[in-house]
Amino acid sequence: MLQEPLTAGVCDGATESALAKDWARLLSRAAAEHAMTLPDLLAGGTAFEEFAAAAVAQWDPWLVQYTQMRHAEGRPLKWYEHTKLAEGAYATLLTVRVDPDSDSHPDTSEPAWRWRAAALGDSCLFHLHDDRLVQAFPVAAVEEFGTTPDLFGSRNRDVALLARRTRFTEGWCQPGDRLLLMTDALAAWLLSVPDQDDAVGQLLEFAGPDDLAGFKNWLNGLRDRRQLRNDDVALVRIDFEGR
Amino acid sequence: MSDPIGGEVPQQKADVVADAINRLLTELSVKCAKEEGVRDYFHVAVVGYGATVGSAFAGSLAGRDIVPLSEVADNPARVDERSKKVPDGAGGLVETVVNFPLWMDPVAHGGTPMNRALQYAESLVAAWTERYPASFPPIVINLTDGESTDGDPTTAAEAITAHATADGAALLFNLHVSAAGGTPTAFPDTADGLPDSYAQTLFAMSSPLPSHMRSYAASQGQRVSETTRGFVYNADITTVVQFLDIGTRATELR
């Protein structure tokens, strides 16, 4: 059972930017690591700005390394990659930290966990209690999804602006609760279905690595029926049990 | 197309048109560039019209009609390099090399057989819509000095927009490069104020912007209405690339 804090995140690279996958990977790792050592970043302010500056500072050195690697492999960057990479890479940011609460939640004698989250853009966190949706963050309605979400740019040094546009929230989980972190297409599906409880039930069928093939088939079924936008999907599931 | 156009530095109209096409292809390639290559979100044909009508690609793409964007991006006729100072993100400037790929050179001889050119484009559109009925409808961008020398192009234009895919009618946008002066105009919703009858004819031939393009233009602070058309007069046509949707846009926070 988990007695230590836990951090997790989902970052979704923008279709239109090159190396978005790499930037998303770097950003989600930086966020999870910083949230572990600097939990206050999940409340915004200067702690978040410090993290944002540190994440952006990692990009150019990574890019130099990548460029050298491409060169060494005899595949130097093409003209359009030079142009594109000068614009930077873009991704959403969603990161969450869960702390086992040493005191139980004031309203109950059961063990509880406190969670805090930061989100920039449209990757979403859902809090389930009794397998029903009790909180959706930062997007609450399907109409809010579009092709121009706020994005964390790999060259954005305006950390005050990044902090201002990032949303922060927190909550409590009891045994049996779950947190789901997911990219926008799947989140939009969950917020748009007529029967949300049934949709949650379908989603919870998939719990572990052995379920990957089934999960992919299920997603492809939704895509074929035009219920899910044809876009990448990432899902992180955190289940709370006893302590 | 060999008349100079107005402005501080008189520039041959043919240069303006070639420059616009090279910039369109550059923007489109960069928009769809991912590491390891450009995605074939679009296929592109460049049709030149003057003494002859046909593929205007120079270099290794010469003679090709519709080419996947990845091949276009990988095969410019040449890439010019120029130095440029760009912001370094920390308040200073840094010297960098900017690449200017070129796929076609200016051609200024012969007439302006717009009818034949539009008919040629229509044959490409017809074949495409038949082959890919579920794709986004083709977009024909006609860059011209407006003076069709083989008759009124309206019927040929209508023939293009009569083709459709499941997603809607093929689109015809026009860029009119003119020495007549007047106010440069991009994506107007009325012909009022256009300086001459050529501009008005081209405006009338241009497709209204589809709703998703209108909403993008509006989100960028452009004034648009339901009657806004894909027409540009002596102004930058390359913004049209920004109207094309391929997924999540990569934009800095504002």
UniProtKB/TrEMBL annotation, chain A:
InterPro entries: PPM-type-like_dom_sf. It comes from the Bacteria. This is Protein phosphatase 2C domain-containing protein.
UniProtKB/TrEMBL annotation, chain B:
Residues 1-231 form the VWFA domain. It comes from the Bacteria. InterPro entries: VWF_A, vWFA_dom_sf. It comes from Streptomyces camelliae. This is VWA domain-containing protein.
